[in-house]
């Protein structure tokens, strides 16, 4: 009886989800210890933390998919900026309705994502190189579209005169809260992205193909898996989520900044890896990524609540990434 | 008075977590003997070997070398004590040269810590010579065929002057001629007083090599004896603890309608433009027939199967007719859709993803069957199908959700076979279906193959084990240098005849080389 119970426990303990959850709980426990005069016990602090990680989290969803194919997507931050710039440009100077602007932005970034995917799949170039190139290219494109300036609600008319226009309601809507002001819309968007990614990975045939390609590409091909299409779909999804994140970013910042989101790809990768999805591919899940996102979110929040200086924050984040990954791997035998 | 044994293991016990996998095993190795360690996969052979080679240090019991108690803290320790292991999986660095590999971790170093490459190459040359391997020490390992790499592993053990050599299924990637070569080398090593532990599933090797045999079953030693006192039937009984059904009734005789007709199949060499790996091969595979393809390594049998499956793309040309209809050589995806499936000879590199669960691994090629039109996987239907098939296969897995890497070799192979069968194939292309598989699983696979042909599936089989080919095939085509050198019907075939044809002995066949 007790033996069985113990065995059950040790099996559960070996599950990556358990380990990821323990890391998160540990982080929350630290928050309870260093609660900054009770600030950590206020819901508004948690709500803000969730809002702050949401944009990163959306990127991490796409990153999870790409990492499971044994790839990497460095271009997410630049695609985010490109999406932010296009979204602001469509809705502010052009004055197009959101119902047109949003699908268009999604389409642009998804297309660029699938270009990365096609280069990886059909030309056989390493994902790191392809997406590094796409990262540079998309950042450049964002600067071309925006003319190197932030696109704000301060618009120049055809005759050269400038005037201030109202933000269209979509900006306010995305940056608002629901459920009695207890949760931000961007957080809801993030959770929907997690759910969508989960459906793709855990319930659709595409998901099976993604795991198979990441786990053993040649074996997948010889089992009749359309390897190229699968890879293209994975990078396209990552592009799509980058666009979603970019739109959220633009709404929160109330303008389209071509410089926005610098180095976000590194945060997204860190969140995926802390969750326990390995860079080797073929293994992992978006649920783990969700836990990873929350772990990093709480870490940042606790440090800022306790007024830790920027330098300390960076050093601690680095150290904790290593600890978390080491903890995830656990005992080898 | 007998010489003191090289290795003495007494009462060895080993646990993994709460599970004890070795329950007090005794084992001795004398200098100048080949001691075969036999047993089914999971019997504890690998664990015992891992203890001897220093991989596990947390065991109980006694381990002695030349009568002195030892305890190895790491594999490095064991190597230092003169124990070399030649693994089933190669442990060479492909991008480095032969001589660099031979001295990897034991470099010959000058005074200031720089490697003396000259001396290393000279010593490597003499070791290679001792092994009768005609390889330049500066060759990169990746340029050598697998069989040579395997022999190189042995050369490395020699270079380290190991007194105990452990061979863990060294011949699974070798063809008959290379096995022959290896066996000769091992006889020589024995003659020079080395102690050799040899693990294999192949009867022939056991009886050609063994001075003594120790059989393990379920973590216990069944006994140690000489081969004379343990005839094959008895050996199998020791291993499995029960009688294996000697199911030797061949599928059936008369020919049926053709399932797959191949006409003028050619496979271009990947680099040389005027050479063909498969050259103008034509044959007919009938419904419910097992057609065996014999041939030495490099004869093109494996390439032929890959080509028919569409895995070689445009390098393969020729016409195919599937159940009478013309069928273009396409992609693996097309082939699977049309009911032609390939089981490759390398389940590790080309078959399974180690982290993927059993269910998902098995259903990978047949997901179309289990999906709605939008690509939603109907998981209950999928699981039922996998469950019923794997039960038929006698699959032994901790759970259907366990990653395949946790299964033994034989069970992994069954998962791989299940993937092929779940596609409801009409033609099965089997490349070494029993490689690295234990006796019981082999028997299961033979039984299943006979069952499939009875259901009307046609099988094109190639295997380096001639016994297996003779046992299973209705007809046998022998290939030599990419061409069909001879064809034998069941009954008129002998092992010698096949080997002669495979080695290119002149045959009066009308497809002769002059064509």
Characterization of this structure:
The complex is a heterodimer of chains A (333) and B (515). Chain A has 14 helices and 4 strands. By secondary structure, chain A is mainly alpha-helical. Chain A has helices at residues 2-14, 16-33, 43-68, 76-91, 98-122, 127-146, 169-174, 185-203, 205-215, 217-222, 227-253, 264-275, 286-305, 310-329; strands at residues 154-156, 162-164, 177-178, 183-184. Chain A is 72% helix and 3% strand. The longest helix of chain A has 27 residues, at 227-253. A two-stranded antiparallel ribbon of chain A has the order 1-2. A two-stranded antiparallel ribbon of chain A has the order 3-4. The mean pLDDT of chain A is 91. Chain A has one domain: ABC transporter involved in vitamin B12 uptake, BtuC (Orthogonal Bundle). Chain B is of the alpha/beta class and 515 residues long. Chain B has 3 domains: 7-240, Rossmann fold, CATH 3.40.50.300; 256-339 and 425-515, Rossmann fold (3-Layer(aba) Sandwich); 358-424, no CATH class. Helices cover 33% and strands 24% of the residues of chain B. Chain B has helices spanning 45-52, 75-80, 98-102, 117-130, 146-159, 176-191, 203-209, 232-240, 301-309, 332-337, 347-351, 358-363, 367-370, 379-392, 409-422, 439-454, 466-472, 495-502; strands spanning 7-16, 19-29, 34-38, 60-65, 68-69, 83-86, 164-168, 195-199, 212-217, 220-225, 258-268, 276-286, 290-294, 316-322, 325-327, 340-343, 427-431, 458-462, 475-480, 483-489. Chain B has a 6-stranded mixed beta sheet with strand order 6-7-8-3-9-10, with helices on both faces. Chain B has a 6-stranded mixed beta sheet with strand order 16-17-18-13-19-20, sandwiched between helices. Chain B has a 4-stranded antiparallel beta sheet with strand order 2-1-4-5, covered by helices on one side. In chain B, helix 4 (117-130) crosses helix 5 (146-159). Chain B is globular, with a radius of gyration of 24 Å. The model of chain B is unreliable at 244-251 and 507-515 (pLDDT under 50). Classes of the chains: A mainly alpha (333), B alpha/beta (515). The interface between A and B is medium-sized, with 28 and 34 residues.
């Amino acid at each position: 009886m007790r033996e069985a119970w113990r065995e059950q426990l040790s099996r559960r303990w070996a599950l990556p989800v358990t380990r990821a959850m323990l890391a998160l709980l540990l982080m929350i426990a630290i928050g309870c210890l260093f609660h900054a005069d009770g600030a950590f016990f206020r819901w508004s602090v948690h709500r803000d933390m969730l809002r702050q990680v949401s944009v990163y989290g959306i990127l991490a969803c796409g990153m999870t998919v790409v990492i499971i194919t044994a790839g990497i997507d460095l271009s997410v931050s630049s695609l985010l900026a490109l999406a932010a710039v296009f979204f602001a440009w469509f809705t502010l100077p052009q004055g197009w309705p959101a119902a047109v602007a949003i699908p268009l932005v999604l389409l642009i970034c998804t297309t660029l994502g699938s270009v990365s995917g096609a280069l990886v799949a059909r030309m056989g170039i390493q994902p790191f190189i392809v997406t590094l190139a796409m990262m540079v290219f998309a950042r450049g494109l964002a600067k071309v579209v925006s003319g190197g300036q932030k696109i704000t609600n301060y618009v120049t008319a055809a005759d050269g005169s400038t005037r201030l226009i109202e933000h269209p309601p979509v900006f306010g809507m995305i940056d608002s809260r629901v459920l009695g002001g207890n949760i931000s819309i961007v957080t809801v968007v993030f959770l929907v992205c997690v759910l969508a990614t989960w459906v793709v990975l855990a319930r659709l045939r595409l998901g099976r193909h993604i795991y198979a390609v990441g786990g053993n590409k040649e074996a997948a091909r010889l089992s009749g898996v359309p390897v190229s299409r699968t890879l293209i779909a994975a990078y396209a999804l990552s592009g799509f989520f980058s666009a979603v994140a970019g739109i959220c970013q633009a709404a929160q910042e109330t303008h389209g900044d071509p410089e926005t989101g610098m180095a976000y790809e590194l945060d997204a990768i860190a969140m995926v890896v802390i969750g326990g999805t390995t860079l080797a591919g073929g293994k992992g899940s978006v649920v783990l990524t969700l836990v990873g996102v929350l772990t990093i979110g709480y870490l940042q929040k606790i440090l800022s609540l306790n007024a830790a200086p920027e330098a300390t924050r960076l050093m601690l984040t680095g150290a904790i990434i290593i600890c978390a990954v080491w903890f995830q791997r656990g005992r080898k035998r | 008075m007998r010489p003191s044994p090289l290795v003495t293991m007494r009462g060895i016990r080993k646990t993994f977590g709460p599970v004890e996998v070795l329950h007090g095993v005794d084992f001795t190795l004398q200098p100048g003997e080949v001691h075969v360690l036999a047993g089914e996969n999971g019997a504890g052979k690998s664990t015992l070997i891992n203890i001897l080679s220093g991989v596990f240090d947390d065991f109980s019991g006694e381990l002695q070398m030349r009568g002195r108690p030892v305890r190895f803290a790491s594999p490095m320790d064991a190597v230092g004590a003169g124990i070399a292991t030649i693994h089933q999986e190669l442990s060479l660095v492909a991008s480095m040269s032969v001589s660099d590999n031979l001295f990897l971790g034991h470099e010959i170093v000058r005074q200031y810590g720089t490697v003396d490459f000259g001396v290393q190459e000279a010593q490597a040359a003499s070791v290679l010579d001792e092994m009768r391997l005609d390889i330049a020490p500066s060759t990169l390992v990746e340029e050598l065929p697998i069989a040579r790499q395997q022999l190189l592993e042995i050369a490395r053990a020699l270079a380290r002057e190991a007194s105990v050599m452990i061979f863990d299924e060294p011949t699974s990637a070798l063809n008959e001629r290379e096995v022959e070569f290896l066996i000769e080398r091992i006889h020589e090593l024995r003659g020079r007083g080395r102690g050799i532990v040899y693990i294999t599933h192949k009867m022939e090797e056991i009886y050609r090599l063994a001075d003594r045999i120790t059989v393990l079953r379920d973590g216990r030693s069944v006994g140690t004896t000489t081969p004379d006192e343990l005839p094959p039937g008895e050996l199998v009984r020791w291993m499995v603890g029960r009688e294996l059904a000697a199911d030797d009734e061949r599928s059936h005789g008369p020919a049926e309608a053709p399932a797959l007709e191949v006409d003028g199949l050619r496979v271009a060499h990947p680099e040389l433009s005027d050479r063909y790996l498969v050259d103008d091969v034509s044959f007919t595979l009938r419904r419910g027939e097992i057609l065996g393809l014999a041939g030495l390594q490099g004869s093109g049998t494996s390439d032929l199967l890959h080509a028919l499956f569409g895995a070689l793309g445009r390098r393969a040309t020729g016409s195919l007719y599937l159940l009478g209809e013309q069928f273009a050589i396409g992609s693996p995806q097309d082939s699977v859709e049309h009911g032609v499936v390939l089981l490759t000879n390398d389940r590790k590199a080309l078959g399974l993803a180690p982290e993927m669960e059993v269910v998902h691994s098995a259903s990978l090629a047949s997901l179309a069957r289990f999906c709605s039109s939008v690509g939603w996987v109907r998981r209950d239907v999928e699981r039922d199908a996998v469950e019923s098939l794997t039960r038929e296969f006698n699959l032994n897995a901790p759970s259907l959700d366990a990653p395949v890497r946790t299964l033994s070799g034989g069970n992994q192979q069954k998962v791989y076979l299940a993937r092929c069968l779940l596609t409801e194939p009409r033609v099965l292309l089997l490349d070494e279906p029993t490689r690295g598989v234990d006796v019981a699983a082999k028997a299961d696979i033979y039984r299943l193959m006979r069952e499939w042909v009875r259901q009307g599936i046609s099988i094109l089989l190639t295997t380096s084990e001639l016994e297996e080919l003779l046992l299973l095939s209705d007809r046998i085509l022998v290939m030599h240098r990419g061409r069909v050198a001879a064809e034998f019907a069941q009954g008129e075939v002998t092992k010698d005849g096949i080997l002669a044809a495979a080695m290119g002995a002149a045959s009066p066949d009308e497809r002769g080389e002059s064509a």
